[in-house]
Amino acid sequence: MAAAASMMPNFGQQISSKNDLVPDWTRQEVSTGTTIMAVEYDGGVVIGADSRTTTGAYIANRVTDKLTPIHDRIFCCRSVHPTLTLWADPVCRGAWPHLLCGGFRSGSAADTQAIADVVAYQLGFHSIELDEPPLVETAANLFRASCYRYREELMAGILVAGWDRRKGGQVYCVPIGGMLVRQPVSVGGSGSTYIYGFMDSNYKPGLSKDQCLELTAAALSLAMERDGSSGGVVRLASISEEGVERRVILGNQLPKFSTH
Amino acid sequence: MATLTVSRPPFGGFSFENCRRNAVLEGEANKVGCSLPAARKTGTTICGVVFKDGVVLGADTRATEGMVVADKNCSKIHYISPNIYCCGAGTAADTEMTTQIISSNLELHSLSTGRLPRVATANRMLKQMLFRYQGYIGAALVLGGVDCNGPHLYSIYPHGSTDKLPYVTMGSGSLAAMAVFEDRYKPNMEEEEAKRLVRDAIAAGIFNDLGSGSNIDLCVITKGKVDYIRPHDEANKKGVRVNELEVAQLTGDYKYKRGTTGVLSKTVLDLEVVEETVQTMDTS
């Protein structure tokens, strides 16, 4: 894939731009603009995402499910351009990682779907070999391995969250470039920039599951209100020892705030 | 990633070694005044809808080469397996070859498992192949079919991402078709209602998008039966040119009556058989 990387983008443009009958956005890559979020609580994790996938200015899928199951108790939230997912880690917050690499491709739903498929396969295989449910940290490391190895070609930011017997509920963040860090709360995607302030002021350690669900729903609806690439419905899931509970909050049922 | 292929196992995508040379040649050709032929694209409106007993796939029938219509009645609904069909938008060659390759692999897979293939399998094969080529295969597909788990509909983008939805549209006319779907789609429709909805969606694409046109093809897939209706609706019938004075059809008749051309002279040469040999062939 990396063989003729420097040559690729120019010629792609030349060949396809001759035909004016076909509008521009049909040639654009499908990207998940996105806002995703994951919160740990005592006994499990709560994850949430918006549901919009865009090709340029057209919404290709307004009901996307970005919460992808990797294993029974492990999910991943897929996103692109996770600009500042190092929010909750106090050590890293000062460093502003420059995540605009290469720029040939605007990053895509295809990358995140492909990585998730590969990791689900690897994790399933590993779990059968072990004869026990896999650890969330293992899943996160598998994501990191793929994202780091193909960092020049891929542009995908992933939040891995789940429950296992060893450490309970965990959230791991794997941004573009292939770093791996565990955080109690993490937000990602293009819409995440709009809710750092909200998360800073409203998150406290020791929240219950319902408080986490409310916090996630509120944060996501705020981000969806301000970010053009995020929208649709809010998909939530809570993962614990008992299992996975999924719910959807439709557009008209989103929490309302004073300015909108 | 384990994949099943006919001959050799899949490996990395295209080789771009000759791109620079090709660009130079194209530049030189343009200097002289000629341009390279454009790839034939299916401008296209394709769509699909899940109804109570199955799926309905629809497509227009225009294929364009630049600004010229290359084929007025091309078939965009491709066969994948007896219970799965796929509409293709984008570069015509890419959609044709991709669907044929996956159809072939799926048939081998189905013989190996001994079962009717599932739509999810076809989806996996298509997305893994398109991802491997990183979007350089310009095939945007609407895949639909009915298997043991019911009716399924997927949209597959050239870069390899897929969406599983109850109604999808693709191609340059997809916005027009999606407008019709968003207005009139209901879950669990009857077959006639679904066919009318798809027909109207494709018609919206045909009449509002320059890249789509001609007729409307439909494919209705239900458990155990496939109705490939081509054409379902001739939305754009070619007019008949008539010579008003003689009230005779001018178009389409290229046969001349015997005696139209006058015969000046006639010479008959008898061919003499000089030698006759018979060579037997072993056809066993």
Topology (elements, then pairings):
The complex is a heterodimer of chains A (260) and B (284).
Chain A: H1 8-16, E1 30-31, E2 36-41, E3 44-49, E4 53-55, E5 58-61, E6 67-71, E7 74-79, H2 90-93, H3 109-130, H4 136-149, E8 157-164, E9 168-174, E10 181-182, E11 185-188, H5 196-202, H6 209-226, E12 234-240, E13 243-249
Antiparallel strand pairs in A: 1-4, 2-3, 2-11, 3-12, 4-5, 6-7, 7-8, 8-9, 9-10, 12-13
Helix pairs in contact in A: 3-4
Chain B: H1 19-32, E1 40-42, E2 46-50, E3 54-60, E4 63-65, E5 68-71, E6 77-81, E7 84-91, H2 92-113, H3 119-132, E8 139-147, E9 150-156, E10 162-164, E11 167-170, H4 174-184, H5 191-208, E12 216-222, E13 225-233, E14 242-243, E15 248-249
Antiparallel strand pairs in B: 1-4, 1-7, 2-3, 2-11, 3-12, 4-5, 6-7, 7-8, 8-9, 9-10, 12-13, 14-15
Helix pairs in contact in B: 2-3, 4-5
